[in-house]
Amino acid sequence: MTVLNLRVRRVGNSLGATFPKEALMSLNVKEGDELFLTETAGGFLITAHDPAFADAMAAYESTKRQYRNALHELAK
Q: How large is the average pLDDT for residues 14-27?
């Protein structure tokens, strides 16, 4: 397990964190990209993907076969 330090700094009237280059490369993000902070039992998880979108896609995957004709009509 790799431990990297984040530094919290004042950005205008807000606070922001600076990420080490290694963390940004691992997350595959660049300036302007969104990161998602998810609270877990063991603390917080920072990811570059939206967990809500992933859940929505999983729901789509489980129903796309059942509703393929309706989805085809909606795509027109």
A: 91
For residue 67, give Cα distances in angstroms to 51, 54, 58, 59, 76: 24, 19, 14, 12, 15
Evaluate if pTM is beyond 0.85: no
Q: What is the pLDDT of residues 41-55, one digit of tens each?
A: 999 888 887 777 778
2 domain residue, yes or no? no
CB of 48 closer than 8 Å to CB of 37: no
- Whether 12 is in a domain gets the answer yes
